[in-house]
Amino acid sequence: MKYWVSVAVLFLLSVALALAPTNDYFFYAAFVVLQFVVLSTAWNILGGYAGYVNFGTGAFFAIGAYSAVVLFKWLGAPLAVQMVAGAAVSGLLGFSVGLLTLRLRGIFFAIATVAVTFVLETVMINWRYVGGATGLQLVRPAVIEPFDTYTRMLFVVMALLALIAISVARYVQDSWIGRGLRAIRDSEEAAECSGVPTLKLKLFACTISGALMGAAGAAMPMYLAFIEPASTFSLNYSVSALAMPMIGGTAHWIGPVIGALILATIQQVVTVTISNEINVLVVGVLLVAFVVGAPDGVLGLFKRWLRSSK
Amino acid sequence: MIFSLDLLTEALLFGVLLGCFYAAVSIGLSVSFGLLDVPHVAHPAVMVLGSYCTYLLASQGLDPIVAGVVLMPAFFVLGILIYRFYYESFEKRGTDAGVRGLAFFFGVAFIIEIGLILAFGVDQRSVSAAYIGSSWALGEYRIPYRMLVAFGVALVLTFGLTVYLSKTFTGRAIKAVAQDEPALRLMGANPVRIKQWAFGIATGVSALAGAMLIIVNPVEPALDRLYIGRTFCVVVLAGLGSMTGTLAAGLILGIAESIVLMFLGASWAPAVAFGLLLIALGVRPQGLFGR
Fold it and tell me: Distance between CA atoms of A151 and A154, rounded to whole angstroms?
């Protein structure tokens, strides 16, 4: 109950913020931070709970974005339809990637997801309809009342999506699904032998994780009013979506949220104040530092601190 | 493009040369990932680092191949350090080494890439030598000398490593570690030291592979992303740790890529390695010459 009240409060807060006369740049940056909250939460459902490392966040994100672009160009579909469609197509992609887990584990699964990213990127580069390698300029439709600018509206939409993603992750974690996924992570054979429906659970985790990433990606073309394959499929999304849960802590749904808020905020600040390259370097260095020095992330550090102060 | 026998022969010829080159850039990974089971996603990044070191030495007037050879000992030490660090942080602790080890190497790859961008910028870099830029006319076909050089070095590397792994004492020990580590420990050998040595060799070889990379094509810091597909495709297709398999798989990839390049165009080429990798993983994960 307390959880749902805070979700409602957070959502209303985001709407109130968007209606307040703040600097528009805040929403421009906050949108990206929230987008990473969604990506990292979605990554953690498969990577953190089930232990399957997905390096292909960029693929799911971009397929969501391209689904939105196709619908927008073809039918002029509104944002909500674009996002639902992006989620559906990426969920389908997640399902097919999930089928790969039948045979592949560990690094093989991870490398396969990288391969999926590059194959799909090549397809999009060669698809003229969506702009090919040069990309496609999009004209945003008129903003919906009561928001002043499109960015403000997107900020609220992404806040809502982030809250949905977190709620889904929380539900998965606390239900039998999460227990099953953790059993898979610890020992897939043992889980299978104890009657855990491993394939069904893995497929579920892949689909949900992919769908959430796709929904986040579907908002991107409208945010930029532009789409282009190289940056949309970028491995930078993959490394960020992997680094954030690792930094925050993968065991609990709040971990990826903490990681995303910390890392994405640093990234936004660094991109503005120093450079775009340094921001990827920050991700890499923090990722390595945390997996080596604090394997359970910020959450683990916090727990250790609680225990020692007792 | 019109399909013709002439073009096909040219594509095949170029594919064989390219294939040997791909085998050479993958052979380090074939040892580190194929034999030692280290999830070395940073292998292509280390190789590109080798290319840039070659570039630095070559700009001092050194021949790129010689530069690559000179760099080998330094990279050997680098490899030992990387493995040592990986072992202490992940393998020794045991639990969950998979996810975190992977994340670690992924992070290392990005750090190398961004380090190179900060040091050299995003522009392409290339080296010059007598054999770069000119080509050898064989009948009606023109074969660039740089491809021939890469072809030669690739053969030497593959052959050398095959002999080393099957004929020398340390080489056999490396193979033994890959086969059965606990047994080796029972025989009184220290598997960690052997693995460390093998990882050093794999990284040392990457320096020469990096030199060839910059000889064959100009390099840029983000090139490692593309080579994740090529190197892992070759190693997986080869069957983990098989040296002759690496050569065969390299040839398959090289020919496939050169045919696609010739008949479909350059924009489809990156998908070949990754597509072939996906097929290999989905259909035959143990590879063609799997152990």
Answer: 5
**Are the beta carbons of A226 and A135 closer than 8 angstroms?**
yes
Give CA–CA dist A281/B112, Å, rounded: 9
Token pair 């300029």 is at which residue? Answer: A137
Share of chain A above pLDDT 90, in %: 47
CB contact under 8 A, A239 and B106: yes
DSSP annotation of B33: I
* Residues in chain A closer than 8 A to B111 (CB atoms): 281, 284-285, 288
Domain, as residue range, for A25: 2-234
The full length of chain B comes to 291
Q: Is the residue at B37 inside a domain?
A: yes
Among the partner-chain residues B93, B104, B285, the one whose CB lies closest to the CB of A104 is B285
Residue A282 lies in a domain: no
Q: How far is CA A61 from the centre of its chain?
A: 7
Identify whether A242 is part of a domain: no
Q: What percent of chain A has pLDDT over 70?
A: 100
Boundaries of domain holding B150: 28-224
Residue where the block lists tokens 């990096």:
B210
pLDDT of amino acid A32: 92
- Residue B106 Cα to chain centre, angstroms: 16
Residue B239 lies in a domain: no
Look at residue A206 and tell me whether its pLDDT is greater than 60: yes
pLDDT of res. B198: 92
Beta strands in chain A (DSSP E): 136-137, 226-227
Give mean pLDDT in consecutive 10-residue pieces for chain B, a chain of 291 residues: 74 88 90 88 94 92 89 94 89 71 89 91 82 74 81 87 89 86 81 90 92 89 89 88 85 92 84 90 77 52
Half-sphere exposure (Cβ direction) of B45: Cα atoms closer than 13 Å = 19
> Inter-chain contact A111–B228, Cβ cutoff 8 Å?
yes
Q: Rounded to two decimals, what is the model's pTM?
A: 0.90
Number of domains present in the structure of chain A: 1
Nearest beta carbon to residue A235 from set B115, B225, B277 = B225
Q: Provide mean pLDDT across the span A141-170.
A: 89
